[in-house]
Each structure stands twice: as structure tokens, then as C-alpha cells.
Amino acid sequence: MTSTYDITLNVHRYDPDKERKWIQTYQLEAGRIMRFVDVLRKINDTDDSTLAWGSSCEHGQCGTCSMKINGKPLLSCELLVENAVKYFGTTTFTVEPLDVAPVVRDLVVDTEKAYERIDRVKPYIINPVLQDEDEMEHQISPETLERYVDATRCINCFCCVSACISSHENFLGPNAMLAAIVRIMDPREQEKQERLDCLYSADGVYRCHSSQACSFVCPKEIDVAHFIALAKEGAL
Amino acid sequence: MATGFSLTKIPGVRFLQTKSRTRGWPYIASWAHRISGVMLILYVLLHILTLSALKNPDDFDNKIKFYASILPVFLEWLLAVPVIYHALNGGRLILYEIFGNRQDNLILQWLPGISATYMLLLGIFMVMGNQAVSAILFWTYIAAASVFISYLTVMKIRHSGASKLWKMQRISAAFLFLMIPAHMLYMHLDPSIGRDSSVIIARMNNNFIKLIDLMLLISVLYHGAYGIIEISRDYVSSHRVQAACTATIMLIVAFFVWIGMKLTVLI
What is the value of ipTM here, to two decimals? Predict the structure, then answer.
């Protein structure tokens, strides 16, 4: 078993001060169970401290370290070097920022801009169902929860938006659709119509063509396309 | 050093392999659906223009001679690739989006085999060119099945909050799912069915066939126009340009509906 790999990273870089874009090649030795965030950190430590990239939890829970590696949008904290070599059949990797918002620097995108799509669908309870005075908390039956609990696991990493066959400008995006669908299926929420209006707006589900790339790339293994199809069918 | 042949050395295969790893096969199927759809709507417009020559049967017979030579016949057979692919993949999408089928990988796996069988069958009929089938009987069966599939689709999506235009797109797809591959098959049972003006005019004089042709014309052009408009809306950001694209597509389609209706009704 190989314990290390000699890998080559072709990283798409961007310097906002000089408005310059270029591809920089890094060659380094990487341990087989190093994750791509570890590889990028190693580059920072040993080769180039100016390479900018983002991460936070590094446990696949926050979505900050999402980027495209050899064209596939994924969480770089979840991808081991060994798995990448096996999956792509190469030791050369192209690393790009997600194309879902303007690039701030190198692999970092403008998250605030990306989140504008999510904000439009209001991913929170607008008008909660009133409870009886003696009830301390909402009760959701396991059967009801089972229908949409998977959709609640979305971490808004925007991998699905990057992979989608539709353009990013005219479609709110699979994760925004999912956020709207969760609240429509959530029995604690009374305000359904506002979200349905958003879902069936010109930049809503009509831009989805069931290419299912969202489900394919989702790091949380959510079948995003399934939920959007339920919305199209009218089965929410 | 000798190197072995590998399919991945072919650029197209390598591209598909890469895309299948980064987006999945349904994504590739969706792109192929778009490309085949654009090819088909362009062909339909050409088809309507060619048929419009039927106003003058001698002129039509002269023009159609070109289509009877080897290369055009071969190209016509190749046209069955986008036809059967678009129909089967469209059927897969309807099952996925409307009938809740989530096992569509199985359909994707079967798609090349069914397409190849259709191509083979069509090729055999084209080579034999001696089949005789009653037009009324053939189209009664196909139209009845198509209306039934459309009815099932209507019943399934009637409560969806999606727009009427979107629903019409899916209903027209369900209707065309059998109609178009059957139309192509029927037209090649015998060369005279599609190339002899007297045979075509005699068939089109029947009111039932007129109705079938009108239904085909309207559903194909609606389906194609909606598809092209949706593609433009995916990529054109400006609302003004979007509106201009939509208006242009609708005008072109309305023109072809008019030509087609004039031909069907007045012949």
C-alpha cells in the first residue's frame, strides 16, 4: 500500500488587488489519509502562504471549504488524497473555487452574495402554528418528520448550485428550493403560500430539469432532486 | 513500448467519463435531451416546409426524389437516434417528476438497448419497404394509447401548483412519447407512404387522419417551442432579451402552425 503520493495541484488563483487570474502549480508529497484541506494547509505552511482558501469546522458540517476538484464540487475537508487518486484515476488535480458567487480571492467566494438566494426563500418559520397553552413544545409525528427530515440536513455548501445544469444567475438554486420545501413540509409553519409563490416563480422549480447533479454531488447525500420533483408533482 | 488501446483515449468517451464522475449520468442524459430536442425541432420545421410543397403534387414528387437516394435515407434512419432517445428519456423524466419513480437509473441502463432495438426494427422496415398497414387501424391504436398516457399524466399533475404552461409541456410530452416514434416507424413501412404525393393526399383526406395530424402538429410545435424558450430562460439574464427571445420563438412557431394547419385542413 502506498503511504504517500506525489501529487500536483493546479490551483485557480485570483488577486483582487491586481485583478489578475492565473493557474498556479504546486507539487508536493501528501500522505494517503491527508484531506485536501490538509494539503492546502501544507502548501500554506511550506510553499506559499498567500494561497487563500476557506474552512471552518473541517468535519463536513459547515460547508465553508467547498470547492471544485477536477470539476467536481465537493467539501475539501471530506476528500482524502487516496480516495481522490482512486476516484479520478490521477495524481494531478485542478482546484477551483465554486462558480456560485464572485471570487473574493483564490478559492474564497463571496458567501454573502451566495446566501442572497437562500435569504429570498426565508429559510425560517415566518408564522408558527399556535400551540395550546399547556403544550410546551411542538410535536411532529415520526411519519411526518420522515418525509422531510433528510432535507433539513442541508448545510448550504452550494455544491449543488455549482453542479446544476441550469445557469446560476436565473435559478435560485437547488439548496434554496430545498430550504423552501422544508418549510412547506414543516407542520410548525403556517405560512405556506409565500414559499409556494417563490417555488413556482420564474427562477424557481421551472429552472430545474431533473438532471439530478445536485443529488449526485451533495456531500450530505441528500436526494435534492427528489424533493424538487415532489414540488413539481404537487406532492409536498 | 507498445501501448494498448483504451476507449478513454477517444476524446468523447473521456469527456463523458469525466462528466459522469463529476455530475452523474442523469446530468449527461439531460444535456443529450436538450441537444436532441433542439435537433428535432429544427427537423420538424424543415419537415413542415417540405410537406407544404404538397399543394402542388408534381412539385412535391420532384422535390421528394432527392430524399429517396441512399444518403438522405441513411440520414433519415440516423434521425431515429434523437427521436427514440428524446422519447425514452422524456418518458424517464415524466416518470421521475410526475409519477414518483426514483429508480430511473434502471431506465437509463435500458435506454441504449431499447433504442438499438427500435433502430434495428426501423432499419429492417426501411430495407424491406413492403409493409402494408391500415392507417386508420395503426393510428387508432397509437392515438388511443397516447391519449390514455396523457390522461394519466393530467390526473397526476392536476393538483400541482406549477403553471398551466409547464403542465401542458409535460402533457404534450406524454402524448408524443408514443406518437413520434410510431410516426417515424409508420412512414417507413413502405416508401410510398411518405414519398408518393397521391398516397399521402389520399391518406390525409381522411378526417380521422386529419385530426391525428393536427394533434401531432400542435403538440410537437408547442412542446418544441416551450423547450426552446425554457433553454433561453436558463441562460439569458436580461428580462427584456428573454421577452424578445420568447416573442421571436412564438412568432416562428405560429407561422409554422399556420403552414401546417393550412396543409392539413385544406388538402
Answer: 0.92
